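Running this now, will post back.
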Amino acid sequence: MKYFCIAAIALAFLPSCRVVEQASQHGFESGYYRYVSDTAVVQRVYLDVADEKITGYAKDAEQPMFEFNLLPSGMPCQDPIHFKKRSLDIDITTVPFKYRFAMDSLPAQMNVTFNAGVYTGWRFDSYSVHPQTTPLRECRYEVTNRGFDFGVFGGIGNVTVNPFSTRNRIESEYDGMILQYGVAGFLETNYVSLGLAAGMDYLLSPDRDVWIYNNKPWLGFIVGVALN
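Update: finished.
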């Protein structure tokens, strides 16, 4: 158990300062995607995504198969197209509140305490490039993103240990350190992941044997910020 604790703490603080500073958005970036349209067979394409335009290339092709100008232009609007992508997601996470279920004669609890961790999961994104007509009758394109993912998380935090949470087995009250772990699912925006988590807490102090929530399931609201 000692080595498990050390590993979990290291996991929570593994990302270097440089990586944290570069915490990037879950954005629509250059790379390989699955191309989906009403008139074409689903295929793998490479997208060159710039501020002004999106250019798509079929596999091993030198000439683009399509191009969308993101700036307003007098060119006729094209039909919308869609892209899908699967990727590994790594986030720094926190659970702002946890709902702990009723234990024997004790009521359910809603806890708001410090905690932080690292989440890893599989992310599924769907991007749509669709046309819009400006008031000047020019055509421009916008990109919208919908995404979700699910995976596992682990980290550290603190909890209140008191007579209530130990069935009066201790007389004092203090903030104990815990390891938290579990599973989570997210709905994605460009920069922040919001979702639900189900997990457990392991109290690191000797009072874990009398703390009623030790390794007992809880439900919570989880927030993540992308690292990759």
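The chain has one domain: 2-226. More later if anyone needs it.
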